[in-house]
Amino acid sequence: MLKGQMSGSICSCTALPPSLQPKRMSCIYGFSSVPSFSTAASKPRTVIRCSLQGTVAEPKATSVAEPLLLNAVRGEDVERPPVWLMRQAGRYMKAVMNHFLSYQIICQKYPSFRERSENVDLVVEISLQPWNVFKPDGVILFSDILTPLSGMNIPFDIVKGKGPVIFNPLRTAADVDPVREFVPEESVPYVGEALTILRKEVDNKAAVLGFVGAPFTLASYVVEGGSSKHFSQIKRLAFSQPKVLHSLLQKFATSMAKYIQYQADAGAQAVQIFDSWATELSPVDFEEFSLPYIKQIVDTVKQTHPTLPLILYASGSGGLLERLALSGVDVVSLDWTVDMAEGRRRLGPDMAVQGNVDPGVLFGSKEFITNRINEVVRKAGNRKHILNLGHGIVVGSPEENVAHFFEVAKGIRY
């Protein structure tokens, strides 16, 4: 909770381009007992109101039938930015809330990540943990981008302390030929079941989010054999046998489009595409080995689900922002190395943005966290912004600081 002496702090909006600048917006910090999603609803809580022309803005009318996150992405008037955090369900959660086990206790009982992420009951319970504690505006499925691999005839595991392990890395045409196109209904029915349950549990009070891996990132894992520092194997394949890599990328593109459609049909109201390793490519190589396949996915999904918001995230993407927007996605998620105001200018006012507080900020003081949240919100403006971190929550982040992040974020008023 903020100290009383912070009341009356003024927020400048000069970093925004004119099309995104509200007139004389100022954020006023104070205590209020206005009902809201609070981690401690019975206590006075911090409220941050952004006023126009010196008066506190009234909450703007929005469609009550749709979650706040969807309204924001579509450019509707919203009273505050929706907020959720990547990796909001995970190892940092130690507390036991009501009858729910903490994630750490679940890990002790079910040590295999694949068991936790491929069991309907566990997926639902873990996905709902942050919802039950923090009430974010987005509830993302607990899963992994590599989950489809088994269904594509690519054996793998996720080993504690080591990460993903691909048992037979794909490095030749003969390796790629046996890879099957993904049929999610057959291979991962638990994903669909979990999303359907989550949609019912959340009951439109937040958006249920699905996610997939982008083709180049998936290919990087299966060619490298797991995580990599230098990506020498995927680049060797790209630059010496590009036809082989393109064949693999096409299989992933077709499969991930089907996977997004499946998730949407099961209950996902928005889907995030993770292209975590695309930024290992130079811009010219991104245009050959990543962008066309993301665009193909987007085009395919939009044919059957034209209103489904698609979010694209690529870590370290400052050099590729304009190219990310060319994919046709609805939202570009910025990592923390990009200044939010600069990202807004480069992407233009019509592109929704997500992010982008440095995850490391959660190790700071509550006042520091508050200031960083407000800085991002000021620079993002009051339209088409989803507040998030610039990457996932780091293991060891104090849970009380995550709670403070949500409390401050949900107290913001434009």
Automatic annotation (TrEMBL):
CDD domains registered for this protein in UniProt:
URO-D
Q: What EC number(s) does its UniProt record assign?
A: 4.1.1.37
Which of UniProt's keywords are assigned here? Chlorophyll biosynthesis, Decarboxylase, Lyase, Porphyrin biosynthesis
Which residues belong to any copy of the Uroporphyrinogen decarboxylase (URO-D) domain? 82-91, 209-225
Q: What reaction is this protein's catalytic activity?
A: uroporphyrinogen III + 4 H(+) = coproporphyrinogen III + 4 CO2
List the SUPFAM superfamilies: UROD/MetE-like (SSF51726)
Q: What single Pfam family name could you report for this chain, choosing any that match? A: URO-D
Q: Name one GO biological process term.
A: chlorophyll biosynthetic process
Q: Name one GO cellular component term.
A: chloroplast
Q: What is its main location?
A: plastid
Domain of life, per UniProt, equals Eukaryota
Pathway(s) the chain acts in: Porphyrin-containing compound metabolism; chlorophyll biosynthesis; Porphyrin-containing compound metabolism; protoporphyrin-IX biosynthesis; coproporphyrinogen-III from 5-aminolevulinate: step 4/4
Localization, per the record, is:
Plastid, Chloroplast
Its Gene Ontology molecular function terms? uroporphyrinogen decarboxylase activity
Q: Which EC main class describes this enzyme?
A: lyase
Classification via InterPro entries: UROD/MetE-like_sf, Uroporphyrinogen_deCO2ase_HemE, Uroporphyrinogen_deCOase
Its assembly, as annotated, is:
Homodimer.
What is known about what this protein does?
A: Catalyzes the decarboxylation of four acetate groups of uroporphyrinogen-III to yield coproporphyrinogen-III.
Which family does the similarity line name? Answer: Belongs to the uroporphyrinogen decarboxylase family.
Q: What is this protein called?
A: Uroporphyrinogen decarboxylase
